């Protein structure tokens, strides 16, 4: 990947790609599928993000001992500030109230539900549509991996049902569709065997 | 318009009020991270908890901002409205603008 500053040769910036990873939105999405520069940039950003979360998890674990509660609180808060995403409005009882949920909170909720189903692991999650506009139609896109041997269609249907119920309860989003994509079938973990 | 930060006591009171609302699992610092770090470091030295709720006075009205985590059977939007209502009730009869951000749901 050759780049000048944070702008790739194709004209897209790393900031735009990062926003795409956060929100799933970019001006010309069809370009991403054809541009090796962008694909390389996205792969790097994903690795960086995964590394950042791994390091943060390690730091939070490390801070969880002794008198370092204050450090643990900071790191826990940092995790929430890393990817707040867009602001999803919540209706208030008073016109002067400004109530909202972060997109990051809703995405984490979706991922926790997907992870909670037996034999599934959550992948990427996207809220497509203008979540900042009350009542705007929203499509939820979630990718999951399923452990081999678990019924794929049944898992997808169960996840769709559970997500519909939870999002209706915990958000005021107008969810018009839930797209579940099974991106991987995982091999069940084998019992370690002694090598000869 | 002159704006000034009100004493920590009121912010600490509001933090207790918010924490007591059914469904609230955590109250996170409303200020930017660098201020949270500075506040937490001071707290670690002095032993006094830094208030996490931001309260600013402007003229005769107050602006309150809280970032919360929610969980349990109560729907998250209902918890956010209950938090705003509890803040408003505690500050009554003063005028106030309340901002509540839900940054964590469940878990």
Explained architecture:
The complex is a heterodimer of chains A (196) and B (107). Chain A is α+β, with helices and mostly antiparallel strands and 196 residues long. Chain A is built from 6 helices and 7 strands, in the order E-E-H-H-H-H-E-E-H-E-E-H-E. In chain A, strands 5-6-7 form a 3-stranded mixed beta sheet, with helices on one face. Chain A has a two-stranded antiparallel sheet with strand order 1-2. Chain A is globular and about 50 Å long. Chain B is α+β, with helices and mostly antiparallel strands and 107 residues long. Chain B has 3 helices and 5 strands, in the order βαβαββαβ. Chain A binds chain B through residues 67, 70-71, 73-74, 77-78, 80-81, 84, 87, 90-94, 96-102, 104-106, 108-109, 112, 169-172, and chain B through 28-29, 33, 36-37, 40-41, 43-44, 67, 75-77, 80-81, 84-85, 88, 95-107.
Annotation keywords:
heterodimer; A: 196 residues; alpha+beta; three-stranded mixed beta sheet; two-stranded antiparallel sheet; 6 helices; globular; B: 107 residues; five-stranded mixed beta sheet; 5 strands; 39% helix
């Amino acid at each position: 990947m050759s780049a000048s500053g944070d702008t790739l040769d194709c004209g897209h910036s790393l900031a735009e790609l990062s926003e795409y990873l956060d929100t799933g939105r970019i001006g010309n999405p069809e370009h991403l599928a054809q541009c090796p520069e962008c694909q390389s940039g996205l792969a790097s950003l994903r690795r960086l993000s995964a590394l950042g979360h791994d390091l943060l998890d390690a730091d939070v674990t490390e801070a969880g001992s002794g008198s370092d509660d204050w450090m643990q609180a900071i790191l826990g808060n940092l995790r929430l500030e890393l990817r707040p995403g867009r602001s999803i409005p919540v209706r208030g009882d008073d016109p002067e109230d400004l109530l909202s949920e972060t997109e990051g909170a809703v995405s984490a909720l979706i991922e926790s539900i997907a992870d909670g189903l037996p034999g599934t692991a959550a992948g990427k999650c996207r809220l497509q549509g203008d979540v900042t506009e009350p009542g705007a139609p929203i499509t939820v896109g979630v990718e999951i991996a399923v452990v081999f041997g678990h019924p794929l269609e049944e898992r997808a249907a169960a996840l769709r049902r559970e997500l519909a119920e939870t999002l209706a309860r915990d958000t005021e989003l107008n969810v018009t569709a839930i797209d579940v994509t099974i991106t991987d079938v995982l091999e069940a973990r084998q019992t370690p065997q002694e090598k000869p | 318009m002159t704006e000034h930060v009100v004493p920590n006591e009121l912010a600490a009171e509001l933090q207790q009020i918010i924490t007591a609302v059914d469904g609230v699992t955590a109250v996170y610092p409303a200020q930017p991270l660098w201020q949270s770090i500075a506040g937490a470091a001071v707290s670690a030295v002095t032993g006094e908890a830094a208030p996490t709720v931001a309260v600013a006075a402007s003229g005769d009205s107050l602006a309150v901002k809280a970032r919360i985590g929610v969980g349990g059977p109560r729907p998250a939007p209902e918890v956010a409205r209950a938090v705003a209502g509890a803040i408003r009730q505690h500050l009554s009869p003063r005028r106030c603008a309340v901002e509540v951000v839900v940054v964590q749901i469940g878990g």
